[in-house]
Design a protein that fits this description.
- 2 copies of one chain form a homodimer.
- Chain A has 187 residues and is mainly alpha-helical.
- The first copy, chain A, has 8 helices and 3 strands.
- In chain A, a hairpin with a 5-residue loop joins β2 and β3.
- In chain A, α6 packs antiparallel against α7.
- The first copy, chain A, is elongated.
- Chains A and B meet through α1, α4, α5, α6 and α7 of A and α1, α4, α5, α6 and α7 of B.
- The structure holds a DNA duplex (28 and 28 nucleotides).
Amino acid sequence: MSLRHALLGLLAHSPASGYELTKQFEVSLVHAWSAKHSQIYPELTRMAEQGWVAAGEEGARGRREYRITDAGRDELHRWLTTATADRVNRSEVMLRVFFLWTLSPDEAAAHLDRLAATSRQALAGLDALDDHVPWDASGSDLMGRLALEQGRRTATTMAEWADWAADQVRAGHDARSLTDRMSRRPA
Amino acid sequence: MSLRHALLGLLAHSPASGYELTKQFEVSLVHAWSAKHSQIYPELTRMAEQGWVAAGEEGARGRREYRITDAGRDELHRWLTTATADRVNRSEVMLRVFFLWTLSPDEAAAHLDRLAATSRQALAGLDALDDHVPWDASGSDLMGRLALEQGRRTATTMAEWADWAADQVRAGHDARSLTDRMSRRPA
DNA sequence: GTAAACATGTAACAGGTTACATGATTGT
DNA sequence: ACAATCATGTAACCTGTTACATGTTTAC
């Protein structure tokens, strides 16, 4: 389960309340993982029982701050260094592509055009995020910037692929057979 | 829910039993979605109740074949053409990257090297798949090849990013501050 | 005073995985 | 005869989302 490790990672940076952790999922971590408060609060309770985190005194407005324990840091390190088979990619976007053949060529090409536009919008959003985040020289901000760059490259790749795929579909529509025109990777 | 639509998409190609659909998830669709037979069988029952698919007679070994109905085709078309906000990306890979700062620079760089290697393995797997699948000129095979190309491009992007990120981490380790050396996108 | 933000929790449900359970047919 | 593959189903459990529910503090 990744949620526990996401929480450990956030708490490794500094102690925080469930409320604050929820906000961090909404902002900094949103492109990698997400979680609602209704999942986070019970999870923190279980992690405290397990000894990975420790709950502090109850503060103002019932705020309870959690801090990571040594056992928690050990578990975080174990999770980061033990190679685990990654869970299968689930992509609704790609699922749709598989079934685009059931649409008319015009509809399919339009769908791919929209996909390219959406990817470029996502890219613009990441650029804007980069501009407005006050990055410092800390290790965690550094990794945040590496992750952001990954997002940029992935969004760019998706946009360029969608352009290419739309071209392929349109070329196939114009000619007798799309297959003849498919550019395949060089042998 | 995407499972229903994945099943509709597969049945749009040809009628099939739950068993056959399960196999198709394991093979052709595995890079886009996955589902176990224990999820597929009850889902087909519900879809039949809803009128999106129709169950045929029970054949040998209790085999029951489902075919898509007109209502099912309508729903598939609606799903493909109605723009739906894509569910948030969940990536355990990127989640780990966010927390690499808790490791030593050597460990972090090694992690990114492994990530690059894994991506190149995935790329090789996709190339092998392309070679051994008997593609024909049908629309569904065409879309399969477009999706495969997307996988190739994404894997390549990930590998190149991981190489770059590992360099950044190592450069930061060698120098006083990693930030000075981070290449940022041009304004 | 009142709206916004802080702060925490529970319940019901949907989606998905693992494990349990059974039986028929085909190939060797 | 035995193993592999075909073929279907249920139950328990885990993860995650939406909705319900409550009370405090700060800023205007």
